Amino acid sequence: MGAPNDGDKSWFDEPRNVNIIVWTLVLACLGVMVGGEFIHKHGHFAVEYTVPGFYGLFGFVAYTCIIATAILLRKLVMRPEDYYDE
Amino acid sequence: MSNYIFPGFILIFGGLLLPLFPKALRKWVALALPVISGFHMHYLPEGYALTTQIFDYTLTPVRMDKLSLVWGYVFHLAALMSVLYQMHVKDTLQDVSGITYAGAAVGAVFAGDLITLFVYWELTAITSVFLIYANRTPTAAKIGTRYLIIQVASGVILFFGVLLWVRETGSVDIGSFTYSEDNWHLFGPFVNPETGAPVSTASWIILFAFGIKAAFPFLHNWLQDSYPAATATGTVFLSAFTTKLAIYALVRCYAGTSILIPIGLVMTLFPIIFAVIENDLRKVLAYSLNNQLGYMVVGAGVGTELALNGAAAHAFAHIIYKGLLFMAMGAVLYRVGTTKANQLGGLHKSMPLTTIFCIIGSLSISGMPGFSGFVTKSMTLSAAFGTHDVLLFVGLLIASAGVVDHSGIKIPFFAFFAHDSGKRCKEAPVNMLLAMGIAAFFCIFLGIYPQPLYDILPFEVRADVNGTAWHNYSASHVYTSFQLLFMAALAFVILMKTRMYPPELSCTNLDTDVIYRRWLKRTAIVIGTTIQSIWARSIGTIKGQIIGTVQRVGDQARPNATLGEPWTIGRTALWAAILLLFVFVSGMTRVM
Lengths: 86, 592
Known about the structure:
The structure holds two protein chains of two kinds.
Chain A: H1 15-35, H2 46-50, H3 54-77, E1 78-79
Chain B: H1 9-17, H2 23-42, E1 49-54, E2 57-63, H3 66-85, H4 92-109, H5 114-128, H6 130-133, H7 138-169, E3 178-179, E4 186-187, E5 191-192, E6 197-198, H8 201-213, H9 221-226, H10 234-240, H11 242-254, H12 260-277, H13 281-302, H14 305-336, H15 352-366, H16 372-385, H17 390-416, H18 430-448, H19 451-456, H20 475-497, E7 508-509, H21 513-556, H22 569-591
Antiparallel strand pairs in B: 1-2, 3-4, 5-6
Helix pairs in contact in B: 1-2, 1-4, 2-3, 2-4, 3-4, 3-10, 3-14, 3-18, 4-5, 5-7, 7-8, 8-11, 10-14, 11-13, 11-14, 12-13, 12-17, 13-14, 13-16, 13-17, 14-15, 14-16, 14-18, 15-17, 15-18, 16-18, 17-20
C-alpha cells in the first residue's frame, strides 16, 4: 500500500477525463431515450408502448431501489469480518 | 458393448493417469485431453445410444442428443480454457481434480438413465472438492468439507428419489419430452403435462436434489461459501460445471414445471442485493452466478421451445463470460493476493489487458448488444415475457438492472479503477491472458455472429410456434437494452457522485449459512454440553451408590460384623441341604 506515484498517473486519474466519460454517458442516455421513440416498438405489455423510454426509466428506478434495499439489508446482515472465526 | 469410448472417460481416466507422465509433459497432456475428448464427442454418431442390462434394469450409460451436446461442447471448451488458465500452477493435484471433474460433468450430461446420472452426480462432488482443499489451509479444509457434505447430500437425496421413482415406474430410464397440443410447450418426463407439477413424491425429491446443485433459494449458500475459497484457478473450473449440470438436469427432466418460474425469479433477485454489499469480488461473482442461474431456471419452467433454447444458449454463453470474470479476478488474486474490493483499485495501470478482458466479460453478462449475453438473455426474456405474467416481467427487468450493478460495474470498477490503492503488480501470466483472450473472443464472436450457437441448440430457433423468424438485433430489442443499461449506469454515476453508493467495507454478511455455521452449531454445542453434564452427574451418583453399597457389604463382612460371624456346622449343613434340594427339584422338572 502507499500513495500512487505521480509518475504513473493514467488517463483516468484526470478529473477532466472522468467528466468526459460521465457526459458521454449522459449523451448516450439522451440518445437512446429519445431515439427509442422513433423506432418500431415490439413488446408484450402495454406499458412498453404507452410510457416513453419505459426501459430506461425502469432501469434507473430499479437500480436506485436495488441500492437502497442493499443499504437496508446491510443494517440487517452485516457483521465483523471474523464473525465465523475461521 | 460399444466400439466407442464413453464421452467423459477420456477426461476422467486421462486426468487420473496424469501424474504418471513426466513432469515436463504433464501440462501439455492436460491441455490435450479436453481437445481429444471434445473431438471424440463431436464425431460420435448423432443419436448414438448404448444400453446394457443389469439385473432387471436396462441402463443407458450414453445417449447423445442435441440437448446433451450443447452442454457437451461448452463443458469441453470450459475445460480447455480452465486448464490453459492453470498452466503456470505447478500443482498436479489441481490438474487431476479439474480434469476429472470436467469429465464427470461431461459424462453426466450424456447419461441416459438415472443410475448413471447419480454416479456422475456424486463424482462431480468428489473430484471437485480438491480444488478447494488445494489451498492447503485450515479454513480451506473446513470450507471444502462443508462443500463436500452438501454436494454428497444432494447425491444421496437424488439416489433416494431414484429408488422411489424406480419402485413407482419400474424403469430407470430418464425418458423424453412430451409436447403439449400446441406443439410449442414441452414437458419433461418428471412433470405432469396436465398440471405442470412434478408427477409424484419421488419426482419432488429428485427435483429437490437437483435444486441443491442448482442453488435454489435457501439451498444456495454452499456456492457463495465455497467458490471464493477455492484456488485462484480452481474457481474457474468450479464456476463452469456443477451448477450448469444441475440446469441441464432441470431442462432435461423438469421442463415446463410451473413452480420453477417463481423459484427462478427469486433466484434472479435476492443475490443482486447481497452482491451490492459484498466486499470480496469473487463472492460477488458467486452471487452473480446464482442470479444468472435464475434466468435459466425460469427458462426451464416456461418450457416453450424458445425458453429451453434460451436456457441452453444462456448456459453456454454464461459459462464463458462467467469463467472470464472469474479468470480476471483470479489473475488479480494471483498478482495482488486479495480480491477484497476495499483493498483494490487502480489496477488498470498494472494489468491493462486483464482490465480489458474483464470489461468484455462485464459487458457480456450485462446483456450489452454486441456481446454474447445480449443474444442469449434476449431469448430467455422474450420467452418469459411471452407468458404475459406481469410479475415475471417486472422481476426479470429488476434483475437485469441488478446485473448491471454487480457484474457490469462493481467488478471492473472497484478492482481496476475507483480509488487507486497504490498497489502495483505485473500483468497476469501469458497463459492466463491467453485463456481470458479466448473467452473474450467467444463473448464478442457469439454476440455479433450467434448463428453457430443457434445451430447447436436443441430446437429450431424461431420466435413462436408459427415459425416467425427470431431476430435478436431488432431495433426494439437493441434500443430497450441500451436504455436499461445506460440509465442504470447513470444511476450508478449519480449515486457515486452524491456518495450515496454503499462503500466497500470489510465485513461478513449473514446469509442462510448462518443457520448451520452459527445457530445449528451453537444449538448442537448446547445440547451436547447438557447431555455431557447430565451424564457426568448421573455417572457420579451411580458410582457413589455402588461404592457405598460395596463398602457397606465390606463392613458387614468384617470379623465380628453380621456377615463376618463364623457359622456353626449345623447351620452350614442346613444351607447345603437346601441347595441340594433345589438342584434336585430343578433337575427333576427337566426330566419330566
